User: Which sequence fits this backbone?
């Protein structure tokens, strides 16, 4: 049985669309400790394990699009080099959960 990754991704995108965020424009709650470590990181699992696609490898560097973070914490365990500093957004910022 083959896995239709495009279909799965489309389903995730659809679900993400209903989330709301109060973005902290001044401070990221996610930080790469040492960009050089990312350069040498072979598989860059953060770029495909994050459900929100926060980590993107482009033009030879890792960008962290923290505004879409779901605060699930998966990336803390995904990085094989312990190269991510993770925290929750400051009080009042981050994902807004809708009830009902
Ligand atoms: S998994 Fe860790 S070391 Fe590798 S690219 Fe991502 S943050 Fe950098
Ligand atoms: S906490 Fe979850 S959603 Fe946020 S960057 Fe890490 S893996 Fe992605």
Assistant:
């Amino acid at each position: 049985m083959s896995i239709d990754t495009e279909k799965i991704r489309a389903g995730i995108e659809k679900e993400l669309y209903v989330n709301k965020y109060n973005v902290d424009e001044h401070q990221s709650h996610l930080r790469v400790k040492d960009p050089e470590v990312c350069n040498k990181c072979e598989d860059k699992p953060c770029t495909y394990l994050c459900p929100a696609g926060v980590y993107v490898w482009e033009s030879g560097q890792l960008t962290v699009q923290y505004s879409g973070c779901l605060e699930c914490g998966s990336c803390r365990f995904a990085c094989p080099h312990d190269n991510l500093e993770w925290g929750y957004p400051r009080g009042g910022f981050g994902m807004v959960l809708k009830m009902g």
Remarks:
- Helices lie at 5-16, 35-40, 46-49, 74-78.
- The chain has four helices and six strands.
- The beta strands are 20-22, 30-32, 55-58, 61-64, 84-86, 94-96.
